[in-house]
Amino acid sequence: MAYQGFAQEYLGMPAVTRAYTTACVLTTAAVIWRLITNFLFFGPLGFSFFFNMIFLYRYCRMLEEGSFRGRTADFVFMFLFGGFLMTLFGLFASLFFLGQAFTIMLVYVWSRRNPYIRMNFFGLLNFQAPFLPWVLMGFSLLLGNSIIIDLLGIAVGHIYYFLEDVFPNQPGGKKLLLTPSFLKMVFDTPEEDPNYNPLPEDRPENQPRDQDQNQQQHPQ
Description:
Blueprint: H1 2-11, H2 15-30, H3 34-37, H4 47-65, H5 72-93, H6 99-113, E1 118-121, E2 125-128, H7 132-142, H8 148-166, H9 181-187, H10 211-217
Antiparallel strand pairs: 1-2
């Protein structure tokens, strides 16, 4: 009833009033998408854009195929957790485009989980993987960019790393970042129940053998 009353009121508006009101509502609602799209924008095409794309592709893939292999839901949850913190901190720092910060977060988490890998930066520097985010920040500074966005990515990456990898292993510590079950249902394949007892007709020993085995056992 309330919906019908609202629909009648809406359709009863004069044409210009209805069009302007609708445009205002849709535009305001579309602002919500900026909470997502601000992680997808890396600036105009140029050296900085392609540089970020290379690092995004490389370290996002290595995380997904490495420490998050078989844990897609946990990987998605890291995205959501990091995105939430960056959005929250970005509002206070007036940062509206957070794609580069998100890339730095991925690099930071990967580097802390692979501390013994030796890195080479453009053939000029050799260092251990944990120094990589700081090297990238220094490179941004040399290019004349603000390092606040890099510091944000490092800070959020460290918060996630500490809560996920460090604190649970401390005396009295526990795992605080728990991936919601609905994400596991959507992204992770269900694990086989070790206590599952199949029906007799479904057991492997009762399955019909192939024709070749029958011929070997019962030669003509």
